[in-house]
Amino acid sequence: MTTLSKKDLISVSLLSIEEVELILTETERLKKCPRNINVLAGQTLAMIFEKSSTRTRVSFEVGMYQLGGLGMYFSSRDLQIGRGETIHDTAKVLSRYVNGIMARTFAHQTVLDLAKYASIPVINGLTDYDHPCQALCDIFTVYEHKGKLKGLTMAYIGDGNNVLHSLVQSCVKVGMNINYASPEGYRPLESVITEAKDVAKTTGSIITPTDNAYDAIKNADIIYTDVWVSMGQEEENQKRIKDLKEFQLNGELMKKAKPDVLVMHCLPAHRGEEITDEVVDGPNSIVFDQAENRLHTQKAIMKLLMAK
Ligand code: CP
Ligand code: NVA
Asked: Which residue range is the domain that position 25 belongs to?
């Protein structure tokens, strides 16, 4: 039987197809039954944030409460990590107090090290490399709106960043196709694409890179975009906005898309940069369903990893 009990959730690429399906099924179940079901009664989750967050922080904290447990927020400044205590020692100490760790960090290696030294489940709440909880939530949101996943095509336009890495890894697990349009210098890591192509041989997914937003979106069932300046890249702000301007998701681009295309964005959005108001607030947008589903997906993840 497939189980995620006591495992970590580090990257979608490290989950089996069955484990991804399990998370989606549990999300659907918990969304239908949102009240406190006490499966994590008496349990605690340490939530470590090196970066800002609205959705991830609030949805994990509320999710723990709704499952009967407690989520505790720590900015890295609050912990002795900020004064040089090692990740090794932090992971070992936290393992003596709490039942799970969720971490949002700059370096992906930090989350890998937490998982290596902790004896409790570790959940990746975003790193510079990927954002697995987001992408699993996104796949669930597509399923809710389309009633299926296999054979659908997602088009991602813009910066080939952490969010795109997790989307590529997720699409290939569920048999979705993914087109991505990014200019040179902003493409996803080749290692992510190579590994995803290997999974795609099993599931039938097709991965199509392009440098043209119109080519990417013309046959798409879903169009997805994310900020051009991710957390930690603030110094490159002006250059990124200039280099990515042809990849804006706006009304003109939407005219070339299927009429029933779904528009997705993990948020926060920089309105007027990667997406315009008319699109993010328009009839095709499901961005707030997506934001809500962070809560349901993460409750499912915490239940599967942490319930006794
Ligand atoms: N999408 C997402 O992770 O949002 P936050 O940065 O607000 O957590
Ligand atoms: N790519 C963005 C995602 C924010 C949820 C970032 O890393 O800032």
From this structure: 12-130+292-306
